[in-house]
């Protein structure tokens, strides 16, 4: 999602939707009042995200260099990581890798975001039609749970490879902890992966950490994520436009777990879904007047997430 033409296309689509719909739905009262708990994170809490930020960055590297962890500074940032599987071509299927981090004691699943020169993922980003989740991949999830069809298709393409790799890695390293990470489109895929893995690996402790995450699904989807109860965190940088797309007007909502980096580089905990406080993304960023596409890359505690490796 970092490319300017992607964001421009998404913005034009969003503006068309804004002009075509007579009135925007108000946020539910319990969420419009969800300003309690807004507070800056302490520095040790911020620093705890750094390994995941670097994994999201490394996901932009091709499998040939992530499978043996030889991707230069992207890999050197997490030097003890043990990759177990990698795939994708970066055009039709986003790059991905799976492995074990002994410092965290976790299996890591990472997905590439959107590259500037790969048009197919861009088209997936702009394929805004929400559809039900595949009941084979997401058993027991109702047909009322709708997600962005492009994100869903991208997740489905690698789901079985990811599941097999995670199972093998959990067994090899004797761990039950699994964290999915990604930036932009990669964050969307990783969020769906977290739901998928939680449903298929009931003994695993799953976590999701995303950066520049767009809205992925409708209100029943975000309620599903809440109900499943695994830990979710998504970091939105300053006036990044991507986290407020697709628009609420089209029925999309954000999951809980937002952390907003403000102009003073404070990391702010923002409880609820689409928290309207000016300390949080929805209140701080305006689709029409007040956004900065360059904030999408970060920095996230000093890490600029590059779409090139």
Give an overview in words:
This protein has 309 residues and is α/β, with parallel strands linked by helices. The protein has one domain: 3-Layer(aba) Sandwich (Rossmann fold). The chain is 34% helix and 18% strand. The strands form 2 sheets. It has a 9-stranded mixed sheet with strand order 1-11-10-9-8-7-4-3-2, sandwiched between helices. The chain has a two-stranded antiparallel sheet with strand order 5-6. Helix 9 links the parallel strand 7 and strand 8. Helix 7 packs across helix 8 and helix 8 crosses helix 9. The longest helix has 25 residues. The radius of gyration is 18 Å and the shape is globular. It starts with a helix and ends in a 25-residue tail after the last helix. Pfam families: Lipase_3. It catalyses: a diacylglycerol + H2O = a monoacylglycerol + a fatty acid + H(+); a monoacylglycerol + H2O = glycerol + a fatty acid + H(+). It comes from Dichomitus squalens.
Low-confidence stretches: 1-33, 116-120
Strand content: 15-25%
Number of helix segments? 11
Helix content: 25-40%
In angstroms, what separates the terminal alpha carbons? 16 Å
Q: What is the CATH class designation?
A: Alpha Beta
The CATH architecture comes to 3-Layer(aba) Sandwich
Biggest sheet: strand arrangement: 1-11-10-9-8-7-4-3-2
Number of strands: 11
Tell me the name of the CATH homologous superfamily: Alpha/Beta hydrolase fold, catalytic domain
- State the CATH topology: Rossmann fold
SSE-based structural type: alpha/beta
Q: Mind describing the biggest β-sheet? A: 9 strands, mixed
Query: Oligomerization state of this entry?
Result: single chain
Reading the helices and strands in chain order gives HHEHHHHEEEHEEHEHEHEEEH
Q: What is the overall silhouette?
A: globular
Kindly provide the radius of gyration, computed on alpha-carbon positions and rounded to a whole number of angstroms. 18 Å
Count structural domains.
1
Mean pLDDT: 87
InterPro entries: AB_hydrolase_fold, Fungal_lipase-type, Sec_MonoDiacylglyc_Lipase
Keywords: Disulfide bond, Signal
Protein name: Lipase
Family: Belongs to the AB hydrolase superfamily. Lipase family. Class 3 subfamily.
